Amino acid sequence: MLQVSESQVRLGLSAPDKTEAIRIAGRAMVDSGLIDPGYIDSMLGREAVSGTYLGSGIAIPHGLPEARDLVRRTGVVVVQFPQGVDWGGGEPARLVVGIAAKSDEHIAVLQRLTGVLGDPAEAARLGNTSDPRAIMAVLNGEAPTAPASEPVAAPIDGNSIAVTAPSPHGLHARPATALVEVAKRFRAEIAVRHGGTTANAKSLISLLRLGASGGQPLTVTTAGEDAAAALQAIRAAFEAGLDEPVSMATPAEEPAPRAAPADLDYDGRVIAGISASPGVSTGPVWKFQREELTVAETAPDPAAQHRRLDQALAAAAADLRNLHEEFWKKAGAAKAAIFKAHQELLDDPEMVAEAHALIGQGKSAGWAWRAVYEERAGTLAQLADPLLAGRAADLSDVGRRVLRLLAAVAETMAALPDHPVILLAEDLEPSDTAKLDPAKVLGLCTAGGGATSHTAIIARSLDIPAVVAAGPSVLDLENGRTAILDGDGGVLVADPSERDRGRAAEARIKVGERREAERLDRYKPAITTDGRRVEVAANISDPAEAVQAVEAGGEGVGLMRTEFLFLQRDLPPDEEEQFAAYQTMVRAMNGLPIILRTLDIGGDKNVPYLRMPAEGNPFLGVRGIRLCFEREDLFRTQLRAMLRASVEGPVRIMYPMIAAPAELERAKAITEAVRQELNVPPVELGIMIEVPSAVMMADRLAREVSFFSIGTNDLTQYVLAMDRLHPVLAPQADGLHPAVLRMVERTVDAARRAGIWVGACGGVAGDPAGAVLLSGLGVAELSVAIPAVPSVKARLRAIAMADAERTARDALDCADAGEVRALVRQRFADAGGVS
């Protein structure tokens, strides 16, 4: 741990001004071997950008980040100026702590220094002591200091004004956040008094703990160099309402983040999202709980723990900034304000200082952070005003957001109640969704995610109605509250009326009747009303699903994900194990074609025997065909098993992640060498079209293969530069975006000129609107989740291909996916629920 030695403490010096005081401190740092002389100029430069006076006679000059290479080693020096040096704020600095920060080891010293700030008598004593050991004892943690959190809520002497807490809800999160933002623009100390309690105006939690309801009197006091200007600005902020809307709606009346389709007519509160899986259900909601966050109480390296906490806070803050910006664009400032308030909760000086102080006492970063935010959340929850008390949930949410980055996460899933529920969640991991029992889950509604997320894909495969990207307001619903989940319309309806329930019941009956009719006709081909046929195949992931695909009416398997054989094991499958699995599937298809995709695993999967290093962006790293080339031994073994199985029936082999003709040439050469070794007949070879370069080179690639299969999920995220699992961007990663549709059009055009066919096996193929548009663009085969096979076939039988082609052409000229979906909904309102 960093310690301050006697040689790093200089007592009894004097300086005519701040500049010379900084130079004296800088020369002491040079003498101590902490910095190169050039760093002193950077310290002066820092002072010109932002003042380094902390209060209580203490200043902490340090350099700008770009001068960090001039730091030889991390450390501090303390220079005492008993007569004081004017630091520009009217109060003299008597202890000047020069900081050289090559790493974060100095943080522990600074955290102990904050204790001195809270004890003016102690600060004055150290500013005049003639014993360097007195200063060393405090900064090395050998002497007790006042709690860092005490002074921020202490009364101050200065000029005051009387104001009133904004109506009707008082000093809750949004106005308190606005007040904090104003206060932080000034260096003055600013206190807000309500009754017998005083709060630090620069601390959101401190303000919330006042419990000031609407219309109650407050006193604001300021002291310091810019106190008058601060008081004037705060008066103006209160007069302007502290960002409160002129006419406030109650929480139940607030507009939804996303506009509901105009043709939906519900009396209850409509929370609009994105349709992820069709169907309508009614029942009680239940919040999903998955993770158990565990932390050790103590940690051996406080400096590392200080660093971990700061990094976690910075990462969480960046995430919240993205959320605020995104929801501001979609829903306006009022709806996005909650994320702004969450940012201020993270930047709360009381909470952060107290957590660092606990770390200084030997606690781990996770334990310290949890102790601090849970204590404050408990205090807020006990406030009499229900709206203010409700902010405890916000603080808990923010606290857990940081804690996830500090804790060991035990992957657990809380038991669901005995009765069926509509599950609410911030988002769901694929493994979470896959474990759900459809008998207990009436539907899914997530705050985040997108129509092409794994959650949406698995929900469709389980035939569970789902709505995603509904915004954080869904998590405000209490467990047990009745709601309607309309997966067709993409909305959740809270507190539905009797009329709403009746209409939902009618919709369920109609859906049931429609699905029964689809089931009875599932073996009929998908021939449009004007005589055009589109093949509808199934996506499968294991041998048992091959039988299910045929029974569902699938006209083949358009995508067999072979990864199931390679995951969750210590050694890769050998040739015989793979051959047995592929042979079982080929025989189950009974003459129908099956496309076997070669191994498609990247750095985002934990496969120990592959020894793949963790990648900063695994979707742009070694995955798909690139991995097959890295591990050609695995590739050849898999090809041998596939080609042996091809003797049993029509097998097609498909290569994933092809980005250039050279990769296809190499993959084909290896395949042909293996085929000749086995002396089996040739098979049809195809590639996934999922990266933009493959689309741009489609004319060249089409000459070398028998078919293309468009992986719309990956193509969407690569074209739009949006991770489909990103907590903020996922809702926009919609495969019906015109940019993606134009990629499809270009691919189909290149394939037609080469005389080959094009399929699609991503989530868009099973989307009601996607099936229409892909068919209209010329995609000849749609490979979808097994439960969706009958409905997609029925949908195509209900439309004319000429109409689909016309709509697809018009969709290419739309501005975004929302406009595309509205177009399809308008054109095909009566075609089996296309939306």
UniProtKB/TrEMBL annotation:
GO terms for biological process: phosphoenolpyruvate-dependent sugar phosphotransferase system. Gene3D superfamilies: HPr-like, Mannitol-specific EII, Chain A, Phosphoenolpyruvate-binding domains, Phosphohistidine domain, PtsI, HPr-binding domain. It catalyses: L-histidyl-[protein] + phosphoenolpyruvate = N(pros)-phospho-L-histidyl-[protein] + pyruvate. The keyword Zinc does not apply. It is an enzyme of class 2 (transferase). InterPro entries: HPr-like (IPR000032), HPr-like_sf (IPR035895), PEP-util_enz_mobile_dom (IPR008279), PEP-utilizing_PTS_enzyme (IPR050499), PEP_util_AS (IPR018274), PEP_util_C (IPR000121), PEP_util_CS (IPR023151), Phosphohistidine_dom_sf (IPR036637). CDD domains: PTS-HPr_like, PTS_IIA_fru. Residues 2-142 form the PTS EIIA type-2 domain. It comes from the Bacteria. One of its GO terms (cellular component) is cytoplasm. Keywords: Cytoplasm, Kinase, Magnesium, Metal-binding, Phosphoprotein, Phosphotransferase system, Sugar transport, Transferase, Transport. Its cofactor is Mg(2+). Its EC number is 2.7.3.9. Residues 158-245 form the HPr domain. One of its GO terms (molecular function) is phosphoenolpyruvate-protein phosphotransferase activity. The keyword DNA-binding does not apply. Signal peptide: none annotated. Belongs to the PEP-utilizing enzyme family. The phosphoenolpyruvate-dependent sugar phosphotransferase system (sugar PTS), a major carbohydrate active transport system, catalyzes the phosphorylation of incoming sugar substrates concomitantly with their translocation across the cell membrane. The enzyme II FruAB PTS system is involved in fructose transport. This is Multiphosphoryl transfer protein.
